[in-house]
Amino acid sequence: MQATETLALDDLSLKSVKGAMAQFNAKQATAFSQLDDISELVLERSDFMDQLLIQLWDKFTNGMAKELSLVAVGGYGRGELHPKSDIDLLILSVHPLCPEVEQQISAFITFLWDLRLEIGHSVRTVDDCIQLGLEDITIATNLIESRLIIGNDASFSLLKSKLHAPTFWPSTAFFSAKREEQRQRHLNYRDNGYSLEPDIKSNPGGLRDLHTLYWVARRHFGAANLLEMTIDNYLTQAEYRELLECQNFLWKIRFALHLVTNRADNRLLFDYQTDVAAKLGYQGQGNAGIETMMKQFYRTIRRVAELNEMLLQHFDEDILGNAEIESVPIDDHFQLKGDLIVLVTAGEFFHRPESILQLFLHIADNPNIKGIYSTTLREIRESRRRLTYWLQDIPPCREKFMALLKHPRGMGLPLTLMHKYGVLAAYIPQWNKILGQMQFDLFHAYTVDEHTHRLIKYIYNFPTKESKVEHPICGDLFPTIKKPELLFLAAIFHDIAKGRKGDHSELGAIDAQAFCDLHGLSAHDGRLVAWLVKHHLVMSVTAQRRDIQDPDVITEFARVVQDEKYLNYLLLLTVADICATNDDVWNSWKGALLKELYYQTQKALRRGLEKPIDVRSRIRDHKQQALNKLLGKAFNSTTVETLWKRFKADYFLRHTPSQIAWHSEYILQHYDQDKPLVVISKRASRGGNEVFIYCKDSLDLFATVATELNNKNLNIHDATIMNSRDGYTLDTFIVLEPDGEPLAIDRTREIKPALEQALSHPENVVARSQRLSRQKKQFSVATQVNFLSNKNHRTMMELIAYDSPGLLATIGDVFQKLDVMLHTAKITTIGEQVEDFFIVTTEDGHALDIKQQNELKQALVDALACDAHS
Q1: CDD domains given for it (predicted)?
Q2: The whole model's pTM is what?
Q3: How many domains would you assign to the chain?
Q4: Is 421 within a domain?
């Protein structure tokens, strides 16, 4: 692209200027679509804005503002403008403005706003600038980047001279402030740039990290750009080219994002990823274009983060004088400098690649080591890129990798640094494939590699006090497993086949088995690792989407697990996997389900799978324990037994003695049988609050309750639907707040009368309209209805559908219209979709035949299709 043509507008009316801007924007959009040099486009836009502002300045000041300077600051000061970038202006004055000039400046700024430009402006004297800059590092940074557009050169030169004075933010203070600013910014993103909706500018590894290098170089070294940093070897020519390449890629995404959104938005949301990928020329079926673009994005910010850390360490030595810290030898090749490990033998990593693994073993051995020295980072980067084989192919590397896996601290900081600096990707070929691998749903918050890294950290932290509070079983269990390295290996491989065609669990199990064989693990240990990878989802699915009150479900799960050792490993992997998915997915309900499944399976395995549970004995035991509780509250056994004769045997099997006693106490005290009884547990039970409903049964009861609870913004996670022999409901709903927390006391007081009113007058219950979240609108889920089997005259059905507002009420309406009786519901929401489990029968208590199943399936598909688009 040629340099911007001289802009000369004869007519500076609002309409004329808008037309010139529209013509320029169209020209740039066309050039961008032809994949022109992004740096030229960015600089051309800055040049265009300079010329436009010069002409408008002359028009509005009419030569009267001779003492004023129009100055570009911030990104505009650097000459970097994207389609919707802020135009940051400083109007510099030697003296305070007179009223006439103030009016001219006001008219100038108003005109710019009328042009719909994103203007940020300030009017200050030189002394004001210096004073405010000393008080605020952000203002100081903007001033350091200042550039004169038009006006009084003398006043601007005075400002620049004062900015360069030793007393204005000495380089030591400036460096410390910018480094702390970056640290705080990274903390805001939890030191993680790998969320699925990243911020191009502020994410760790984003444009701001590049700006930080530029600002420090300019303030301390007086460098006009990073290229000048190569002169004194702070930066190699290759590293400079890499920074430039990363910057240009991030610029392309930001430029495209502004074109797509038509506003100054730096967040690459799901809403925009498809269009941005298309503008950048990424193609492919389905999400292939987005996947390719995002993978390149994540790999780019990883490179930026590496270079940023390495260069800031260099600056730390030069600016703060930390190069004088005494070095302490570790062995012939490594030293400790402060809390950083240093490679002292140049080329060691290339000539003896196993020494890369030795570096991380030293970090595991010495808890005082907090990181890797900048020169050593450079050695890792260079040797990693020169490798022509995988590190796992080298026997000494395999030996050291296994030593790391078995080291008590190996999966702590060493694993994190191996992931961060690309060593894990250089060791395991399959890991390299999942770097930056997108996950196209609202359930996962991170890329596949980052999710796996977080999973490993959860396992590693299970024994800590903080983790034991939230996961007490895992905290007690982890120290008892004899070979935790097998669990860590299963964690590494559990999602490693994502992005490939086929079942990622099965493909990952094959990869894990091959890895174990290569690394000399015994056949028994290799089978365990491969089994964990293959079955890493089964415990979660069973707990959340199956009826774990059914003894047969427990027996079936126990047969898959095989023995108690496998069960222990699987529980640890399952809990960590759920927690590492995103920061909001774990709640007490999931914890309660997994705990219940774990202990029931443990009992089944210890009892022996050939000895099934004696159902009658369990019912007798539940009744006796419940009766003992009621007798202690002054109820007599005759009254209790009379009530219980109305209940079916299944009721006593599926409820705990405490629940039975709780229900019975309130029913016995409920004298108006025509009025619905609603009782809400004061404390969380089984991870949520129980809502118990006792009233005359009706087909619309489930839909009514589901609608009212949805209107109260509550999530139903479980429903046990039962009736007595004489036609009364004995329904229990487990509910939680949308954030996964149990109900507050004041909420229970609000919900109880609302449910009583709804059950008394179901004809008045109307679902309140609720908006879909911005994120959910970007996804669609095809409704799937699967009938698993018929058992004990009941039909088990699994439903996968889009999580639209009022979903359960819609399902309840379908059941009602088809005279389908609901007995059990387990509600699982995974991001934008639900995966629910129902046990149903016909109105007369029989399993659904094939015709009835097909009718129900079609009715659900039709109803949910309408519901999703209403």
Answers
A1: ACT_ACR-UUR-like_2, ACT_UUR-like_1, HDc, NT_GlnE_GlnD_like
A2: 0.88
A3: 6
A4: no
